[in-house]
Structures are given as C-alpha cells and as structure tokens.
Design goal:
There is one protein chain. This protein is of the alpha/beta class. It has 10 helices and 18 strands. The strands form 3 sheets. Strands 3, 4, 5, 6, 7, 8, 9 and 18 form an 8-stranded mixed sheet that branches. The protein has an 8-stranded parallel sheet with strand order 12-11-10-13-14-17-15-16. Strands 1-2 form a two-stranded antiparallel sheet. Strand 6 and strand 7 form a beta hairpin. Helix 2 crosses helix 10 and helix 3 packs across helix 4.
C-alpha cells in the first residue's frame, strides 16, 4: 500500500514571519511523521517579551484584515470548581491551524501550583495531523501582557505616570512589565490585593524601576491613576464608576467568561470602548453587561481600518478576552524556532 510522506519546509511570508509549507510526496515506505513536544522549559528558553509582542501584533493584523479565522469559544464551568475552555482558529493562507485548551483550576493553589493551565496544539491544515503540542502557560501569560501593551500604546495618554493594578499575581505582573516597557514615563504603581495585605514579591519585582505602594482603598487608587489595570478572577466590580477620572485608560483582563466582570455598572457608557473581538467581548467580556455599547476592534486601529482620535479627557477601555490567533501566532514562532534549533521532544506519530 502506498503512503503519503510529508516534507516540511519553512519560508518567509510577505510579513516577514516564517510560514509552514508542506510538500506531499508518495512513498512505498511507512510514514515517518513526528509530533514535537515543547515543555515549559523549552518555551521559556525560546520566547521573550518582544517576540510575543510582535506575534500578537501580527495576530491582531490578521484578524482585522480577515485573513485569520476565530472559531466559537468553548468556556464551561466544571463540577470541580474550575473552568475549562477551548479557543481555536487558523490562517488558511499561512497553513496555520490549531487550538488552545485552557482554564482555571483554583484548587491548584493548595498544591503550590498555578491555577491557570493551558495546552496548545498546532495542526497541519492539509492533513489534520498534529504537528506540535506545547505547554501554553507562558504563552498565555505573555500574549495577554502583549495585548495589554498594544492597548496602552494606542489608547493611554503618552504622558501617563501613575498606574493602578488590581491583583499581584502572574497576569498583574506581566501587565506592569509591559506597561513600563511601552510607557517610559510611568513612575508610580499602586497595587491592590484580594487579601488586603502587601505582596512582598510583587514589590521586589518592580522596586528598582518605579515607586510601588500597596493600597486598600480601591476608589482612591483609581482616582489617582492615569492607567488602571484589572487582573483579577472577575468576581465582581472592583471600584465605583465615579472614581474614574477624565483621561483615564482601563485595561480589563479578568472578564473572560460568562458572568465575570470587574467594571462597575455604567462605566462602559462613559467610555470609548475597544475590544479584541466584538462578538467574543459581548459573549464573555465586560461588554456582556452592555451588548449594545459601541466598540472598536483593536486590530482595526493597528491596520488603520478604523480611527480613534483620543481626546485628553476621554476615558478609554480595552476589553480583552484573548484571541486564539494570539496563541497560535506565538506558538507557530516557537515551533519554527524549535525545528530550526532542533529543540524539543520529537515523538514518532505514524499514520
């Protein structure tokens, strides 16, 4: 019986990114296909903040131009108290297809581990065969931080100096990391924690770069800040609408599931709202609480398809729910690098 044998090459697309190209060859021999596994160590060694930022910008661009597909999100509560979701999509003209299975397992904290867990699978769109299985935790963290950074670049006032962040965990930290990178004038960070107690590790991380102060008064902290970042589990409004001053930019991270929210009622109506994907934001983001609110997609601002001329007194909100294209754009870069550098575990995966 004759079998098809795949030879995979790499070429640069017109955007400068490597694209998988597949050549199918006939062979009388059995398939020599392999599945590459990239664990956390491999991902951490290959991926940095700048690469994630470039890949996420590409994902937003593809989404805006209609080249990338984003399929319906699966996001369901589990009897264990966690949340499980699947985000999938692809770019047909770049031979990119895949999904991320991810969610939130709060009991992991008792095990001394991270409650957010994610795994990414890249699939050959021509055959349906899996190409690469990747630990998605670092990818999710950096691509979310990168998306927030792009929102800051396009929406926050460049002269912003004070940032208030709700949360001090993994996502709060990466959002601040990126904020300090894209807005050099930031000199002061206020942070609030779920326990109401200071987080010494959070303070140490940023103490050499900015002044860091733990706060317990949410409304006062928001009132004094140019930029507000909400990076919590999204259990309910974190502050009063009246505390948000004219000119403030708000990055919303935590509302990514039906029923979650971090913003107070009525704030969306006061602001100029930007989303990563309009339908997704109305389904699982902050916009689920006011589905008729006008919004602009961030990718359209990047490509120039839409404009948002920010006035100095405008309140802007970036409602981030996370796009599959972001995960896949980052994962593709890692896969190509791993193939070139012969990194990862290659497992025989015959068919």
């Amino acid at each position: 019986m004759r079998h098809e044998r795949q030879t995979r090459l790499y070429k640069k697309s017109n955007t400068g990114y490597f694209v998988n190209a597949v050549i199918i060859r006939q062979s009388n021999m059995g398939s020599e296909a392999t599945l590459k596994l990239l664990d956390k160590g491999h991902v951490d060694a290959l991926l940095d903040h700048e690469q994630a930022l470039q890949a996420v910008r590409e994902a937003f661009t593809l989404h805006s131009l209609g080249d990338g597909q984003v399929f319906s999100v699966v996001r369901e509560s589990l009897s264990t108290g966690g949340i499980f979701g699947i985000k999938s999509g692809g770019v047909s003209n770049q031979n990119l297809l895949g999904f991320k299975a991810a969610g939130f397992w709060p009991n992991n904290r008792k095990l001394g581990s991270e409650p957010h867990q994610a795994t990414i699978m890249l699939i050959d769109p021509l055959t349906g065969r899996p190409q690469c299985l990747i630990d998605g935790n670092t990818i999710t963290t950096l691509r979310t931080g990168a998306a927030g950074a792009l929102g800051l670049q396009l929406l926050a006032r460049p002269e912003s100096t004070n940032v208030c962040v709700f949360g001090s965990g993994v996502q709060a930290r990466v959002q601040i990391d990126y904020a300090l990178q894209v807005i050099p004038g930031i000199t002061y960070v206020l942070y609030l924690t779920a326990t109401g107690k200071p987080d010494i590790e959070f303070e140490r991380r940023f103490a050499s770069r900015v002044e860091v102060t733990h706060c317990t008064d949410a409304d006062k902290s928001v009132c004094e800040s140019d930029v507000v970042i909400t990076a919590t589990p999204g259990s309910g409004p974190l502050f009063d609408s009246e505390s948000v001053q004219a000119g403030t930019h708000i990055t919303c991270v935590g509302a990514d599931t039906k029923g979650k929210r971090e913003l107070p009622e009525g704030l969306l109506a006061r602001a100029r709202v930007v989303v990563d994907d309009r339908i997704q934001a109305q389904s699982i983001g902050e916009c689920q609480w006011d589905t008729k609110i006008d919004s602009t997609e961030l990718g359209d601002l990047i490509t120039g398809t839409a404009r948002l001329d920010r006035g100095p007194y405008d309140i802007t909100i970036f409602d981030m729910t996370g796009l599959a294209l972001q995960d896949l754009a980052v994962a593709r870069r890692l896969y190509n690098q791993a193939c070139e550098k012969q990194v990862g575990h290659d497992i025989a995966w015959p068919w």
